[in-house]
């Protein structure tokens, strides 16, 4: 039965265009290709062979900052250079896997290494001697609920659980926080909680938090009632916990970063599935206050998704076109500004993006870290540059899957790899 289900789910169309066609400021958007079941092409999780590592761009050196972690997904570098790692996975979601389709997808996620129970902790890593390897590893926080985003504001550490933003007291140099977290505000969760990862970032003055809340479905197939205040970026008042929807129509926003100078908020967004291997490109975009980005009614501006009923043409008419496409189904999650980077000149100005890798595309896409060069505060318009590759074997198995990215105190790039259970460090030189 299981084998038959996997075989049936694997039947589907294949891409007609290269990933590059769906990348850049003006991506190619072919006609949708609906299928009875979604195209499923999961790279089975294998882990890194002994001595193996991903390949860095020319002029860079790749080392393991920390190994043996438990599904590391997200990173925060503290002012003293300590690195926080969210070791986390999806919460129990009994209604998200109901029905035949949900059951098949559950099998696929298990194959991809995304099924183990969540460690529900934040681990602190410290490189005391500055050699690029963490000597100290300690549990800073535990007993969380599928934690993801983290932000430090003064002496308050904010953590985005899957269902709430919590505030913890933090003093510089702390290696353990035993005080209970205070709830700043609840976040949409529940028994479906389709896109469970919640990220956050603080404004430059520390008065606001911006929080990502992904949709509760692929294209609102559960009805818009299940999508209340989801598929959005929230703006939260730190003092009171009051919030408003800052931008909407963003199917599954994850990474958040400020452009140099802190004037513009940027995000990477996972777009919809099940209309072909060539649709829809994930994207990087500046987040406009009050902006609507199409989901679920349209994609990439005014391209209507006919699967959604009822239609909302008045919303489609004002849907914003994203700034830069990142390729279809690349699962672009991590985002970090290059401000402070000490990597070679090609990586001086722009955004680093961790692409977790496709499941709904044949052949695979993503499974690497890329860099989008900027000019004048916006994407320069050319192709992205590969920063870290080699996460897939020749046979299509996943040695690792990159997620969160962050610059460390010395300007090197850290990459959380949740299949390889490693935080990689990319620095200048060989």
Mean pLDDT: 94
**CATH A-level architecture:** 6 Propeller
* Percentage of residues in strands: 25-35%
Radius of gyration from CA coordinates: 20 Å
The number of helical segments is 3
Derived from helix and strand composition plus strand pairing, the structural class reads: mainly beta
Summarize the structure in words.
The chain is mainly β. It is 6% helix and 34% strand. It is built from 3 helices and 29 strands. Strands 2, 22, 23, 24, 25 and 26 form a 6-stranded antiparallel beta sheet that branches. It starts with a helix and ends with a strand. Mean pLDDT is 94; it is low at 1-10.
Please summarize what this structure is.
It is built from three helices and 29 strands. It is mostly beta strands and 430 residues long.
List its salient traits.
430 residues, Neuraminidase, 34% strand, globular, disordered N terminus
């Amino acid at each position: 039965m299981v084998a038959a289900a996997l075989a049936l789910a694997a039947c589907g169309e294949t891409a007609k265009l290269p990933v590059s066609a769906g990348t850049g400021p003006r991506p190619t958007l072919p006609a949708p290709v609906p299928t009875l079941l979604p195209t499923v092409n999961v790279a089975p999780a294998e882990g890194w062979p002994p001595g193996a590592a991903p390949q860095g761009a020319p002029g860079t050196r790749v080392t393991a900052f920390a190994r043996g972690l438990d599904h590391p997904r997200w990173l925060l570098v503290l002012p003293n250079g300590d690195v926080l790692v969210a070791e986390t996975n999806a919460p129990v979601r009994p209604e998200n896997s109901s029905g035949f389709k949900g059951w098949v997808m559950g099998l696929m996620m298990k194959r991809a290494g995304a099924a183990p129970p969540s460690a529900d902790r934040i681990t602190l890593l410290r490189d005391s001697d500055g050699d690029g390897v963490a000597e100290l590893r300690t549990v800073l926080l535990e007993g969380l609920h599928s934690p993801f985003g983290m932000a430090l504001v003064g002496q308050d550490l904010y953590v985005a659980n899957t269902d709430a933003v919590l505030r913890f007291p933090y003093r510089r140099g702390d290696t353990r926080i035993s005080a209970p977290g205070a709830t700043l505000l609840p976040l949409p969760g529940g028994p479906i909680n389709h896109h469970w990862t919640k990220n956050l970032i603080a404004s430059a003055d520390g008065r606001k938090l911006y929080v990502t809340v992904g949709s509760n479905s692929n294209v609102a197939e559960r009805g818009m009632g299940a999508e209340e205040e989801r598929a959005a970026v929230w703006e939260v008042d730190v003092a009171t916990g009051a919030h408003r929807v800052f931008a909407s129509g963003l199917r599954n926003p994850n990474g958040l970063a400020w452009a140099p100078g802190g004037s513009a908020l940027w995000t990477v967004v996972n777009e919809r599935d099940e209309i072909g291997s060539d649709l829809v490109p994930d994207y990087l975009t500046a987040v406009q206050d009050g902006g609507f980005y199409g989901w679920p009614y349209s994609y990439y501006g005014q391209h209507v998704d006919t699967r959604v009923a009822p239609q909302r043409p008045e919303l489609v008419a004002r849907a914003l076109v994203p700034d830069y496409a990142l390729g279809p189904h690349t699962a672009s999650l991590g985002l970090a500004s290059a401000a402070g980077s000490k990597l070679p000149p090609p990586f001086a100005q722009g955004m680093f993006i961790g692409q977790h890798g496709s499941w709904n595309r044949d052949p695979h896409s993503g499974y690497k870290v890329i860099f989008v060069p900027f000019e004048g505060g916006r994407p320069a318009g050319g192709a992205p540059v590969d920063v870290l590759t080699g996460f897939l074997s020749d046979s299509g198995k996943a040695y690792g899957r990159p997620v969160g990215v962050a610059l460390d105190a010395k300007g090197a790039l850290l990459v959380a790899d949740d299949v390889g259970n490693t935080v990689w460090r990319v620095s200048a030189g060989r």
